[in-house]
Design brief:
The structure holds two protein chains of two kinds.
Chain A: H1 9-13, H2 18-57, H3 67-92, H4 97-103, H5 105-138, H6 142-152, H7 156-179, H8 183-206, H9 216-247, E1 249-258, E2 261-267, E3 281-286, E4 296-299, E5 308-314, H10 318-323, E6 331-338, E7 351-356, H11 360-369, E8 377-383, H12 392-401, E9 405-410, H13 423-427, H14 432-435, E10 443-447, H15 450-462, E11 470-473
Parallel strand pairs in A: 7-8, 7-10, 8-9, 10-11
Antiparallel strand pairs in A: 1-2, 1-6, 2-5, 3-4, 3-6
Helix pairs in contact in A: 2-3, 2-4, 3-5, 3-9, 4-5, 5-6, 5-7, 6-7, 7-8
Chain B: H1 3-30, H2 33-49, E1 77-80, E2 84-86, E3 89-98, E4 101-109, H3 115-135, H4 147-164
Antiparallel strand pairs in B: 1-3, 2-3, 3-4
Helix pairs in contact in B: 3-4
Classes of the chains: A alpha/beta, B alpha+beta.
């Protein structure tokens, strides 16, 4: 039973003021993003359900009538779900625009990494269970069965090679993350995973019934494989190449901001069409003899004005130092823009921006791009010494323009205490709450070194900020 | 993921799996013990009607015409192919020639070593039959995922066609 309560006339007639309209627009955008995210997640769950359904529709349940057949059946199911999730992993890393705009590039890749180990275990289980299951039905022990598969069964030898490659990809990925091996090595290893998937395909045709004629499974798997291949080709190859050619980006100016820190400005055609926003990053490739073979991810340090793009880079890796020597007119190709460290990620009208070191430069670009009412934003910048507060003057000017309060914390962090503040600020009892009193109902944007970022996030969570309010850009791949 | 959406995704996934189960439950019922007996009874009947001349266990038995003797060219009638043994079980087909054409192919025995083989064969055989009837020869492509069934089917069929003097 429900009763309708008419709205009092006074309330109905009142026109919403500009700030509430803005708040509503932000809320609408946030809700739309949530819906999109839920939809994409649902698709992932459905894909696993469809795989199971197709297996059952093809009489898969009959495997589970006898114990040795059940091992075989389980081996088939793990293989099917493993393949399905492996292709989803590829889709997560395929730079599909809707995925980036919904979850952000870093979260999509975090999920990609999280799936790595389970997928490996599923496919390993697939191999071992079928070695046992088929072994029993042929009266062979699992090892003898594996040898029989490799030498006597069509396409199984390359399927075993594919398994080896997949193990190598996952293991090296884990080692690389831990030991910080070079980006180039990581890239080469990841090319192996494409090889593994290609080598594993033939046995799915000849031994399995994923592509069996006259089944629905055939259409599902064909669509998934072709769709994944198309997504990777389009978004990782065709779009970046076409975009680089179209915009014909060239270095126009290199400015030294501080010792070891340079800003590179690039000009090109129709840059508006990129729809890049302050806070986003690109993979850049500079076409000089020393640099053309590697691409580096750098964030924009200014909101694009339609004619030029600017990045600010500190002398971190091997590539950064060579940027100093860039001549104007050098051709630049790029992939991007990527990332959801943008105005689009907003959930409320108020915002707090926290940046440290070179992480200040994306914060500066984001601040420039943000639509802020006066006194709704707080900017907190941190550096070990005054020279570390990069693009200080520009950021100061932006804060004045947008009537945002600006807090600068300079000095080394105290020893023995886990804090993101300088020892002086820490000693004075400063905290996120004292520096930005409105933080509890603000969006919090953080950009800096990963351990420092984690400390800011820890403090924010202690204050009760929800996950959706916290936006952190992590500089890892 | 929000709770409401997670609930919907869960219910949807369960529904998808249930549909798959419903579609496959027929296969499950037919492979339960009692219906298996009925099915094997039918197989026995089929093989006895095809004539007792071919031994179902001898793998090199010469193909034998069950009706008209091979006199001149293609005679109408049914011809049994050789039994071809594979690691998943033997396969034997019978071809029916009518009006100088292949009018039907009947499977006398097929791979049933385990449920997987049974399933693969029961899926592949009808496809192979269709292709043979269309192409009017044994030169048809393997059914993917059913290499052993396809090859033994084609081999047995060819021996039956040879016996009939059928050259296509």
């Amino acid at each position: 039973m429900s009763t309708l309560t008419p709205m009092p006339p006074s309330q109905r007639d009142r026109r919403p003021s500009a700030p509430t309209q803005r708040a509503k627009a932000i809320k609408r955008g946030y809700k739309a993003r949530l819906r999109r995210g839920d939809l994409l997640e649902t698709i992932v769950y459905f894909s696993v359900a469809i795989v199971l359904a197709l297996f059952l529709a093809d009489g898969g349940a009959t495997y589970f009538l006898k114990i040795n057949d059940a091992i075989t059946g389980l081996g088939i199911v793990t293989g099917l779900i493993g393949s399905d999730l492996l292709l989803i992993m590829l889709l997560l890393a395929a730079r599909i625009p809707v995925v980036d705009r919904t979850f952000g590039h870093d979260k999509a890749l975090a999920l990609h990494r999280k799936l790595g180990k389970p997928v490996l275990y599923l496919i390993l289980a697939h191999m071992v269970l079928l070695m046992i299951g088929y072994g029993i039905s042929q009266g062979l022990n699992p090892v003898a069965e594996a040898i029989d598969m490799i030498f006597n069964q069509q396409d199984m030898s390359i399927a075993f090679i594919a398994m080896g490659m997949l193990i190598m990809v996952v293991v090296t990925s884990l080692v690389i993350v831990r030991k910080k091996l070079s980006y180039e090595f990581w890239y080469l290893v990841h090319l192996l995973s494409y090889g593994a998937i290609l080598l594993a395909l033939p046995h799915q045709f000849t031994q399995g019934s994923m592509f069996a004629e006259g089944t629905w499974a055939r259409w599902y798997w064909m669509a998934l494989y072709v769709g994944t291949l198309a997504a990777i080709t389009i978004f990782r190859v065709i779009v970046p190449v076409a975009s680089s050619l179209r915009h014909d980006l060239r270095v126009s100016e290199v400015v030294i901001e501080a010792p070891g820190v340079v800003s590179v400005t690039m000009r090109g055609r129709d840059l508006d069409a990129l729809r890049a926003q302050g806070g986003q990053f690109f993979q850049w490739r500079f076409w000089t003899p020393g640099l053309f073979w590697q691409a580096h991810p750098y964030s924009l340090s200014a909101h694009p004005d339609g004619r030029s793009l600017r990045i600010t880079v500190r002398d971190l890796g091997a590539g950064s130092a060579k940027l100093l020597a860039l001549k104007s007119g050098t051709r630049v190709s790029f992939e991007g823009p990527y990332g959801l460290f943008t105005e689009e990620a907003r959930t409320t009208p108020k915002a707090v921006f926290v940046g440290a070191g070179i992480g200040i430069t994306p914060i500066r670009a984001l601040l420039e791009a943000s639509n802020l009412a006066p006194n709704e934003a707080t900017v907190i910048l941190r550096g070990s010494d005054p020279e570390d507060v990069y693009l200080w003057q520009e950021t100061y000017d932006l804060c004045v323009e947008k009537s945002a309060s600006l807090r600068v914390i300079v000095g080394h962090r105290p020893r023995g205490v886990h804090t993101w503040l300088s020892s002086e600020a820490y000693g004075n009892g400063e905290s996120l709450l004292t520096l930005a009193p409105q933080i509890k109902d603000s969006d919090l944007y953080i950009c800096g070194p990963t351990p420092w970022t984690e400390l800011v996030i820890r403090d924010a969570q202690r204050l009760g900020l929800k996950e959706h309010q916290i936006h952190a850009e992590r500089f890892d791949f | 993921m929000r709770a409401g959406s997670a609930f919907l995704a869960g219910v949807g996934s369960a529904a998808i799996v249930a549909i798959g189960w419903q579609a496959g439950v027929g296969t499950l019922v037919s492979s339960l013990p009692q219906s298996q007996a009925a099915a094997s009874g039918a197989t026995t009947a089929a093989s006895s009607s095809s004539g007792a001349s071919s031994s179902t266990t001898a793998d090199t038995s010469t193909p034998a015409a069950t009706t008209a003797p091979v006199a001149s060219g293609i005679a109408d009638g049914t011809y049994d192919g050789a039994v071809v043994n594979t690691r998943y079980g033997p396969q034997q087909v019978q071809v029916v020639i009518a009006g100088g054409k292949i009018s039907d192919v009947v499977v006398l025995q097929t791979q049933t070593a385990d449920r997987k083989s049974e399933q693969i064969s029961s899926r592949a055989n009808p496809i192979l039959r269709e292709e043979v009837l269309t192409s009017q020869s044994s030169k048809v492509a393997n059914v993917s995922g059913a290499t052993y069934t396809s090859q033994s089917y084609i081999q047995s069929l060819q021996s039956a066609l040879d016996a009939a003097g059928f050259t296509g």
